[in-house]
Amino acid sequence: MDDCIFCKIVRQEIPSTVVYEDDVVKAFLDITQTTPGHTLVIPKQHVANIFEYDADLAAAVFSRVPKIANAIKASNPAIKGMNICNNNGEVAYQSVFHSHIHLLPRYTAADGFSMQFADNSADYTPEKLQTIADAIKQQLEA
């Protein structure tokens, strides 16, 4: 895709600080460095988001994530954990529409990154949960 910033990075038209590259993925430091070592893993093939992956591409891309995550963790003894995030669609905070996986090293609870999950469990009876599960299962069987 000609105007995609990540495709331009893959083609080396835009500089990036690469930490890993092979025939399937490119991993480079996010320019925001939300936390030190914040890395993006992208498929070299342009796909906008997870909904455009097929099983082969997903296996190829996601199988590389542990290797890169372990290298990031090993690179800095101060790293205590890591968030792995994949945002899909504008409402899910995707801002670059070329699929990418954020590897965010965590140092402390106050290191500049946070996630918050609402607890709506009081609104969901077992029957309501089963209705949602059945709708998803129906799509998996289609």
TrEMBL record:
Active site, UniProt feature: H100 (tele-amp-histidine intermediate)
Gene Ontology molecular function, alphabetical: catalytic activity
UniProt domain HIT: residue ranges: 5-114
BP GO terms, sorted: nucleotide metabolic process
One Pfam family hit: HIT
PANTHER family linked to this entry: ADENOSINE 5'-MONOPHOSPHORAMIDASE HNT1, HIT FAMILY PROTEIN 1
Protein name: HIT family protein
Organism whose genome encodes this protein: Latilactobacillus sakei
